[in-house]
Amino acid sequence: MPIYVEKKPDVLIGEDGTRTDGRSPLDLRPIKIEVGILERADGSALVEWGGNRVLAAVFGPREVHPKHMLLPDRALLRLRYNMAPFSTPERKRPGPDRRSVELSKVIRTALLPAVFIEKYPGSAIDVFVEILRSDAGTRVAGVTAASLALADAGIAMRGLVAGCSVGRVDDFIVVDPNHDEDMWGDVDMPMAVLFEDRKITLLQADGPLTVEQFNECLRLGMACCEMVYELQKEALRRPYVMVERRALGVA
Ligand code: UDP
Fold this sequence. Notes:
alpha+beta
């Protein structure tokens, strides 16, 4: 079997700002969100975001196992981020690794301020984030999907958490970096925002930015998260809109 070797594109971003996938620096990739797609989960959501396919499932509130993990005054919020072996260009070894453990923690931390865990003492809320296809930005797609799955499960929340990455490729600040830009670009800065409190719940950056560039990334990241937030709200409302339309005799 030939070994897959990733190759850096000759040009990551053109002089006019054209990116490897044809977008301009401020274009997001297409995003499609569906909520309530898994019958056996209490809540679920599928986020299709460019080449990413991210499924989130929530089980709970339910009994805590093992019992010694039970928290008498609040819910135990557990989160597992998992990449399917077939989700990456080069087959990924199945099972947890350092990255998936870190991302499970990062996504859980991004969601925690949104969940009223004190309303569910002594119970567990388990969130599974499954990456079916990856094209960079899976953590922010994961936060976006998981927060919708929690809402779909009827878990009491302050609001939804919406995520998006921004970054720098050469001298261009770009929104929603793709795989090439994440891999070969200069900076990837994933963010997530709880808009109800206007609180940033996830912020990471993996390369150098001037203060001006950082402020620009922050401003654009907030704006992109807000666009994702609008799509989340629309996706949550959609089943109810369909019911209302049916009641009116409209297909
Ligand atoms: N990736 C991969 N194999 C891995 C981990 C990551 O091919 O074991 C790819 C995958 O496409 C992922 C991208 O690298 O989306 C960027 O990964 P990163 O760790 O920056 O996280 P993400 O941007 O997905 O949140």
